[in-house]
Design goal:
Blueprint lengths: L5 E4 L14 H12 L3 E5 L8 H6 L2 H4 L2 E4 L4 E4 L5 E4 L7 H5 L1 H4 L5 E3 L5 E3 L5 H10 L3 E3 L3 H4 L7 E4 L2 H14 L3 E7 L2 E6 L4 H12 L6 E5 L5 H6 L2 E4 L5 H6 L2 E2 L7 H9 L6
Length: 273
Amino acid sequence: MEDYKLIALDLDGTLTNSQKRISPRTREVLLRAQHAGVKVALVSGRPTAGMMSLAHELELEQNGGYMIAFNGGKIISCQSGKTLYERCIPKELLPELCGLNKKHPLAVIIYSNNDTIVTETADNYYVRGDSFINRMPVEEVPDLLKRIDFPVNKFLFPGDPQYIAKLMPKLQQHFPSCSIYCSEPYYLEVMPNHVDKAHALSALLKHLHLTQQSLIACGDGFNDQSMIRYAGMGVAMANAQSVIKNDADFVTRSNDNDGVAYAVQKFVMHSVH
């Protein structure tokens, strides 16, 4: 039976339930796993500030856990607070990316180095939703480009899913040095090339002197596909997208039915209750 040493967890739709909370059962199991010496990494498209409260709740600081933010664009040690790895959007692309919302019916979001959501449309439905999920204040500016005096890890372009589906292939062709995909049908994400959850977890495993086979990863969305395929044990939630279930080694219970706790008990603790 494989000895898993690192648990990688997507947040929304995976670790958290429909109310965006970690259930008491799931928290208890993850604390027990960490006390047994297993490391936990939260792996999300969220910015670092949007992951902090969940990291505190799981006591990652005390137990030597990690946050992988921006879909793999940044790795932070919760214990030391240090950035172990970071990838940013090339500066020469910023003017054109900042202008996409002028050409298309999309909002645009970036995340500042003082933990605000920066946008030109604070009252946008998706912007308000992002603020709620990440528990971060919105900073509205008249000109996004003029506000940027910090490294940009990712652009988020929320909008109508059907419009985004048609636009995405064109942008992928136009920006070959970027990784462009949907984390949700209504979220178009623009990242530096070769940034995904699997790349970041590979870097973290190297840092920890662990093998790929010692990794168990749980996820539900399109942006979890790379780590589900990469992990020694890829676990899809019952509520996951069909393609994620197809790529997984195991399909656990839903995020509203302690699916993460069930998988960790089964494969890490070797006891299912």
